[in-house]
Input
Amino acid sequence: MWSKPASQSQINAAMEAYYDDLCRAMRKRGHTPLGSQDIVHDIYVRLMGKPRLPENQSAVKAFLIRACINLGIDHFRRANFEKRLFAGNSEEAATVADSCQSAEDTADIGLRFVILEQAIMELSLQRRRVFLASAVGGLTSTEISKKSGLTKNMVDRHLRKAYLHCLQRLEPTL
Output
């Protein structure tokens, strides 16, 4: 049974009391220490946005662990999806025949480069650095994470948002 919305102080107290237990539960399920912390922090942010906890105080810990487990499963699924999505490399892309290159498409390439450059410049400095390190520098998410001090999840999030932003800006020309 759910209580009325929980106060921020109740959520803070619950997260402080069970933080180590939540991180440990995530590590037991195969997440890295940093990944575990990211999941617990994401749960905290979500709870602050919609503050509800179980009415029974003894069920709060179990509720928080289950919420973290579910979010951890989502993280694994997203990581596997992204791995499959970005599995190709530039050599494979170069071998694909360009059968639909018309004169009109060729004329649009210059415009597309201008739009792409503008889209990249619209990104925040950190997101732009991560994007360029990946797209131009050819670095992996792990390498970018080590060099920038960001978590791999944050690097992946920056890359995903950067690619989506660029695709949205280029969409009218496609």
